[in-house]
Amino acid sequence: MSTSPHGPRPEHHDEATLVVTGAQVMDRDGTFSPATATVTVVGGTIVAVERGGTGVDGRPTGCAGHGDERVPGTLRHDVHGGGATLDDVQGEGARLGISRGASDGGPPQDAADRRRSGTVRHLDASGRWLMPGVVDCHTHLGWTTFLPEDEDEDDDDRDEDGAGGSAADHPMASAADRTDAALLSRAAPGLAATLRAGVTSVRDAGGAASAIRDALVAGRLVGPQMQTAVATITDELARDPAALRARVRSLVAEGADWIKVVATGGVMAPDGSEDESPFDVRDLRAVVDEAAGLGVRVMVHAWGGDALTHSIAAGVASVEHGMFLTERQADAGAAGGVVLVPTLAIYSEVAEMARRGELPERVRARASRVVEAHPRAVRRAVEAGMTVAMGSDFGTTDQHGRNLTEIDHLAAAGLGAAGALVAATQAGARLLGRGSGGLEPGQVFDAVLLTSDPTDTAVLRDPRTVETVFLGGAAVG
Length: 477
Known about the structure:
2 domains; 477 residues; hydrolase activity, acting on carbon-nitrogen (but not peptide) bonds; TIM Barrel
């Protein structure tokens, strides 16, 4: 169960037993053993992973038990227990069968009873690769466009079909109802696309109101498990620790799971701002201290310079982007347990947008400089022993659902395929406090079934590589 300063949030798991056979399964080090494995999931939690080509009953993997009916086709699974469903589409090589034991009169009393007598779903995943669900530690799922002012144009009175007449449009609906309905409607396509892409957990770095996260928990939206910063702390509060503490309290009251500080300029900012920070170490320590007292942690947007030095010294949980990270900063970050979330892909895309004339010319030169520097910073972090976690920084309709592109960028930047896959799964899960992030007993079965070998990370640029996504043991796409 995930927890936050706002209380525990239930995770909705498929209560049936799922037995996945025949796939090559990712190990803790990001590699895949040539031997296939059987993964047994009960109530959404992995109870056994047996390698070597035989199932838990001693029969070869992929073989149905006596009396099992194996049929191709589709089933519908409730994703969050609240009525939101997606087709569980199985490809040609992955067939879903259902068998029932002799006792169907009531729920099993424990995991062993459930395995013996409950509903059992068999998934023959021969010729497929099974990896943990991807954790995207830097998204903007409340956004649909690169230019924030365009978001306002989406908040009209149309429903998804353009016909109007949603419940929030009723004359008696409150202003909050109208606002929440607009937020949820705008976020819904990006959330669903992100989950279908294999991302089962996200940390939103600003723009996703807590209402979006809560709608996911309640089953009113389909998407990954979410933690959110809600909004950001910017330079108007710099050099005022008391005001910074008050802002932290305000954000947590709004439902923030993380506090995000923007400590340097971004790609649209004037040249030179990447090395300038309005916040000193005293400011950032005040933010970290106040956040810790409220049960949340701090992430800092920092390209380089004093912003990185002060963030690491203040004890933040993660630094975002960090493309001008120095060796000394990397050593300090490793010693302090600070995680680097580089977000490589977005800057390549911004550089391409500028090249096409979609952004000001000054952005083109700035973005090109960033793209050149970024891999060097990642290599410095790796050499120093800093943990690197994946973050896409994606925030447009076109980008949502292409998150796994970032894995290929991480591999090319110096992590290699295995390191990039670990960054996209286990490193992110640990940063977000979501277990080990591995496919091992005791962990929630958030997983991705792939049609191609992901150790060639280029295949992850194609969303069609993702065949089936599991969230809490349920197949959701």
